[in-house]
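Following up on my earlier thread - several people asked me to post the actual chain instead of describing it. Fair enough. Here it is, all 205 residues.
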Amino acid sequence: WDLGTGAGFYVDATAAPWSANYKMYTYVTEELPALIEAELPAAPGLMAISGHSMGGHGALTIAFKNPDKYASVSAFSPICNPTAVLWGKKAFGAYFGSDADAAGKLHDATEILKARGAPFAQFPDILIDQGLDDQFLAEQLQPEALEAAAAAEDADDDAKAAADGARDAATARAGSREKAARVLTRTLPALYVRLKAVRFGRLPL
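Reply from S.P.:
Thanks for posting it. Predicted structure:
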């Protein structure tokens, strides 16, 4: 479930045997949009991208690598720093082989932000919603790495102050029970994609 079928990590594999068919990056960025525009009454060139977990990783990295393609990007519990966690290391090692370290960074939202050093004017807001009780939060998802990558480039005192955020209370429903969920809203530094509405909270079940 973390490699192969259902876990292509939205990359074009370069190492055998995966390189024969695992071209998920090209599929999402080129083949699928062309098919949709050809077969459905979709507005040409008007696209948004979103995903969950590995799909959230894919949404962020694909949007960051192709900012002019998408009107918006959002992610739910995304793998934010895959080159630093087991899931990403395993996948990139298999799909890129000996080039895993370098190629993996090109498909890592945190590393892309670090390398860019400038804002994405195309995305004034990016929503990342992360469940606080997610069992994979600390070991695999690491949204704080993405947050730190943005904060590291901030030279604006006002943006730094805003990045401290504010805590609000929200109520989430799980089955028939009402549960209190802590929602943390942060305005991240404008230098990097201006991740304004990054919210760490529990999604309603």
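The first strand starts at residue 48 and ends at 52. That should answer part of your original question.
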